[in-house]
Amino acid sequence: MTDQQSSRSSGTATTDTATERLFVLDLSGGRVFSINPDGSGKKILVTGCDNPDGIAVDVDAGYMYWTNMGVPIINDGSIERADLDGGNRRFIVPKGGTFTPKQLTLDRKARKLYWSDREGMRVMRANLDGTEIETLVDTSDGDARPGRDQTKWCVGIAVDSTRGHFYWTQKGPDNAGLGCIFRAGIDTPQGASATTRQDIALLFKALPEPIDLEIDYEHRLLYWTDRGDAPKGNTVNRSPIDTTPKQEVVMSHLGEGIGITLDLRHERMFVTDLAGSVYTARLDGSDPRMLTAGQGNLTGLAYAESVESRRNQ
Question: Which domain holds residue 183?
């Protein structure tokens, strides 16, 4: 007898209920909180974070991961992990294991964490328990002075495990129009290193201040936020990634846009800004709405959906 037949014979039915949450970082408050996709149901999950900036959620494993920038001029950055309710909090990359970690993403296929290290001038990754830390790209060009040249600042990060690439932003000085987006292979070419690899492609240049990155894998589009001044800044942008790159502004009028996360199943995106707001819109930027405001200085953002089976009479 199948489970479905058993349910019918006993007069019960099993249904799947989707549980959705947004996980949000508040830089000024040093905290992680979650809300429903309509902005309701706020829950404070973690407090006492040291300038949190990037967050990733692994629903299957039951963990959330976030970066702590620490003091930008000091090598004291770290990455923490906790249960989705904020419990069992611990460091997986201790203070000083990375300089100023910014945005963070999870390669679910390879079970790796990727992040950009701003003052460290590099792109890094590690196992989900923090072991085997690697530097994939070193943008310092021999400059040992942390953070002096802002064109070398690595900020956003996204991974396309299907095509074997990762993407990152280098934001440049404030509103200088020197921001860039790059792409490189997940596998460093044989005989190359983080400083000598030749497979790095420049996709966009002369951007105001590109920050966070996300990928729409179904439609093969790269999304990013830009916190620079209008008209090109304070925006959400997208571009095809398998053909010639072409920037399209799909959302504007943000208050220094930072975090972005995509909900592909419902064809929508969510965005945060430093002014303390969370927004949502369709993937093409239509139907934009503010979900909540005045929540601090918001940085990283992650959407998570789990499916719970419930047996009903």
Answer: 16-312
